[in-house]
Amino acid sequence: MSFPSQDYQIAVMAREELSIAIDWARVEGWNPGLQDADCFYAADPQGFLVGKLDRQPIATISAVKYGHSFGFIGFYIVHPDARHQGYGIQIWQRAIEILEGRTIGLDGVVAQQENYQKSGFTFAHRNIRFAGISDRADQLHPDLVPLSAIPFEQLKQCDRRFFPEQREQFLRAWIDQPDAQSMGILQGDRLCAYGVIRACHTGYKIGPLNAETPDLADALVQALMATIPLGSTFYLDVPEPNPQAIKLAQKYKMTPAFETARMYRGCSPELPLGQIFGITSFELG
Question: What is the pTM of this model?
Fold first, then answer.
């Protein structure tokens, strides 16, 4: 490894620069959503860093803060022409500094997991991306409602059960984004399941998919599939500790396409993984 040039500068991304990270993620095969940049930026406008050499972007990372106790690292990418020269570790260390004092999460690709362990991250569980082909449901659940019809405060309180901190600004942007459909299932006045499907560079991705029971999760998958063209490729990122989520993916003949390791630095949050059938994104948790 060579010593990084003194011309290397790390700064907070401007909004228009976030498209660089999104595009590099696409090239890496992570298949981001078409509207991810606006939604991600809403989560934390100060949470995205770019490393520039002679004013040219060569490295990206996100260090997004949620509430007062949690943060998530993603988009850790160094341009192929600048790898193994010490630029990546500098921007990585800056991200860790920004989130110091918080529990930090990330979804690590297989090749980087040992490096993350050296920085104090411990393995929590695997996440598996399943890919399938959309079909039509015979009959949709009678209690389906668009999330836009549910008071946002109710959705926010429900979402807080499935995430380590509140994520109000992100959640507002996520459910209202173009090229997406957001649905929930009510039992009485209680929101007991909700999910989003969005258009990605390849196909469509469901996430989050949170439900109190496997049957409710199944009903949401059917409803969300019904909003996209028949025969479309769609994806679901499943936490491996939820065996019912894996069975659900298998029911729709989905097959594993990619995996990450959810890792934490600090205390691992206690989440109801048995009710998380699809995580929101590998980039922001």
Answer: 0.93
pLDDT of residue 1: 44
Extract the tokens encoding 174: 């996520």
pLDDT band at 113 (very low <50, low <70, confident <90, very high): confident
Tokens 């449901």 sit at which residue? Answer: 137
- Residues 34-61 as b/e (b if ≥16 CB within 10 A, e otherwise) read bbbbbbbbbbbeebbbbbbbeeebbbbb
256 forms bridges with which residues in the sheet? 130
| In contact, 75 and 61? CB cutoff 8 Å | yes
Residue 192 CB burial class (10 angstroms; 0-12, 13-18, ≥19): middle
Q: Could you give the count of Cα atoms lying within 13 Å of 165 in the half-sphere of its Cβ?
A: 20
* Selection from 134, 112, 89 nearest residue 236 by Cα: 134
To the nearest whole percent, how much of the chain has pLDDT over 70?
98
Indicate if the pLDDT at residue 128 is higher than 50.
Answer: yes
- Mean pLDDT along residues 131-158: 93
Cα within 13 Å of Cα(252), Cβ side: 28
Burial of 14 (0-12, 13-18, 19+ CB in 10 A): exposed
Outline where the chain has alpha helix (H): 18-27, 36-43, 87-98, 113-118, 152-160, 168-176, 214-225, 243-251
**Which pLDDT belongs to residue 150?**
95
The tokens of 123 are what? Answer: 């393995």
For the segment 40-66, the average pLDDT, to the nearest whole number, is: 96
| Three-state secondary-structure class, residue 233 | strand
Mean pLDDT over 29-49 rounds to 95
Q: Which residue has the tokens 């050499």?
A: 53
